[in-house]
């Protein structure tokens, strides 16, 4: 018997995601057409002997989260429940606080996944690796590689390359330690709670830290590329009656798309979106109810719910990863500001934002319910 724990965190302030998290909890933000944590849940349900999935976080219970849990249980035919922390306890603290619920039913092992991780989720392979090791009390941590600069923003792993044994681990080191970084996906046995308990009770700090939220557009690209194998029906085909599709594109069936529009690669169009004539969208997420009027151009951006972009307007951000053609390119974890200026990154429009005709919005963050009257560059519009 196996279980899975997905750590969904809680409300955050001072992040690029803030204009969008006003309207929806971050774990429910749609990536490649479905809520972010649905990718995690679907991966967990594909592991044999998986009996329950537990979400742990400090969001207040709300209608959107409750509705998602009911829908996910019906779709995946597995018990899914939410356990609310009294405060942000961190990875180790969160699972230690709810250890009795996690261990109920006596699972042999359990996965722990950070909700803001985008991955192919090789969970069966992690389970097989642990079983091959022959040590019932061994723990498995998923790692990947990064360059020397990027590695300083993550937990770094020094490992024996022959046995894959972790020899040393440093969280966000001040100097270079290793190019192997922690992905925030783990496989534990119940014995982990003895180790966490000793540290948690002694320092009241977390034992393990997960990875930061990467670019939603980057995550969307990975999941859209996976759809060609696991959900080809979710990818829009090219047809004489429809718009021009380049690469992987998700279109909600209720979206209205003019046949002269050009979409892709890496585009996700939500429910009820209207896309006018001559529109170009690339490397972007358009959330439900948004309207892109004729001849608009949207590149490397997230357009919030019910927002409107006027005719001939251009909304553009700066790619947050080094190579948009490489689905495994690593993201540089940049701070929101650098030298007192907003760090160039993707452009984000909050919900109900109105962009007038013939303006340019570049590398900016627009909070919800704003009606702009001119162009902006490298700004946060409050």
What do these coordinates show?
It contains nine helices and 31 strands. A seven-stranded parallel beta sheet has the order 11-14-17-20-23-28-30, with no helix packed on it. Strands 12-15-18-21-26-29-31 form a seven-stranded parallel beta sheet, with helices on one face. A six-stranded mixed beta sheet has the order 5-4-1-6-10-7, sandwiched between helices. About 3% of the residues have low confidence. It is globular, with a radius of gyration of 21 Å. The protein has 382 residues and is of the alpha/beta class.
Largest beta sheet: strand ordering: 11-14-17-20-23-28-30
Helix content: 10-25%
Mean pLDDT: 86
Helix tally equals 9
Low-confidence stretches: 203-212
Question: Radius of gyration over alpha carbons?
Answer: 21 Å
Indicate the proportion of strand residues: 25-35%
Taking the alpha carbons of the first and last residues, their distance comes to: 50 Å
Largest sheet: 7 strands, parallel
Number of strands: 31
Shape: globular
The assigned structural class equals alpha/beta
Pfam families: GMPPB_C (PF25087), NTP_transferase (PF00483)
InterPro entries: GMPPB_C (IPR056729), Hexapep_transf_CS (IPR018357), Mannose-1P_guanyltransferase (IPR050486), NTP_transferase_dom (IPR005835), Nucleotide-diphossugar_trans (IPR029044)
Family: Belongs to the transferase hexapeptide repeat family.
GO molecular function: transferase activity
Briefly summarize what is shown.
The protein has 382 residues and is α/β, with parallel strands linked by helices.
Secondary structure: elements and pairs:
Blueprint: E1 2-9, H1 18-21, E2 30-31, E3 34-35, H2 36-45, E4 50-57, H3 63-76, E5 80-84, H4 90-97, H5 99-103, E6 109-114, H6 123-133, E7 140-145, H7 148-151, E8 155-159, E9 166-171, E10 180-188, H8 192-203, H9 216-230, E11 244-245, E12 249-251, E13 256-257, E14 262-263, E15 267-269, E16 274-275, E17 280-282, E18 284-286, E19 291-292, E20 297-299, E21 301-303, E22 308-309, E23 314-316, E24 337-338, E25 341-342, E26 347-349, E27 354-355, E28 360-362, E29 365-366, E30 376-377, E31 380-381
Parallel strand pairs: 1-4, 1-6, 4-5, 11-14, 12-15, 13-16, 14-17, 15-18, 16-19, 17-20, 18-21, 19-22, 20-23, 21-26, 22-27, 23-28, 26-29, 28-30, 29-31
Antiparallel strand pairs: 2-3, 6-10, 7-10, 8-9, 24-25
């Amino acid at each position: 018997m196996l279980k899975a724990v997905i750590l969904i965190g809680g409300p955050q302030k001072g992040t690029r995601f803030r204009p969008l998290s006003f309207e929806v909890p971050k774990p429910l933000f749609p990536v490649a057409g479905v809520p972010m944590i649905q990718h995690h849940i679907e991966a967990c349900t594909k592991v044999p002997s998986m009996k329950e999935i537990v979400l742990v976080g400090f969001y207040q219970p709300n209608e959107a989260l409750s509705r998602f849990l009911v829908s996910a249980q019906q779709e995946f035919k597995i018990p899914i429940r939410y356990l609310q922390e009294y405060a942000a306890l961190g990875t180790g603290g969160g699972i230690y606080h709810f250890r009795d619920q996690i261990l109920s039913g006596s699972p042999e092992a359990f996965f722990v996944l950070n909700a803001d991780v985008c991955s192919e989720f090789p969970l069966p392979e992690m389970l097989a690796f642990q079983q091959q090791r022959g040590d019932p009390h061994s723990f498995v941590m998923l790692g990947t590689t990064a360059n020397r600069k990027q590695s300083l923003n993550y937990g770094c792993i020094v490992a024996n390359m022959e046995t894959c044994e972790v020899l040393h681990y440093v969280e966000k080191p001040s100097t270079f330690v290793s190019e192997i970084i922690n992905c925030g996906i783990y496989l534990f046995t119940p014995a982990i709670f003895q180790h966490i308990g000793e540290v948690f009770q002694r320092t009241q700090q977390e034992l393990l830290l997960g990875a930061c939220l990467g670019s939603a557009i980057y995550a969307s690209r990975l999941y859209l590329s996976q759809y060609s194998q696991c959900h080809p029906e979710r990818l829009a085909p090219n047809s004489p009656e429809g718009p021009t599709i380049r690469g992987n594109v998700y279109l909600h069936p209720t979206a209205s798309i003019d046949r002269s529009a050009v979409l892709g690669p890496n585009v996700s169009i939500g429910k009820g979106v209207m896309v006018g004539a001559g529109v170009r969208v690339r490397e972007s997420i358009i959330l439900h109810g948004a309207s892109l009027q004729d001849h608009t151009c949207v590149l490397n951006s997230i357009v919030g719910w019910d927002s409107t972009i006027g005719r001939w307007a251009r909304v553009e951000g700066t790619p947050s990863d080094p190579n948009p053609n490489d689905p495994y390119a690593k993201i540089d974890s940049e701070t929101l500001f650098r030298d007192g200026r907003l760090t160039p990154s993707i452009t984000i429009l909050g919900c109900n934002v109105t962009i007038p005709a013939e303006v340019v919005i570049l590398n900016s963050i627009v909070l919800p319910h704003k009606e702009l009257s001119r162009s902006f560059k490298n700004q946060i519009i409050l």
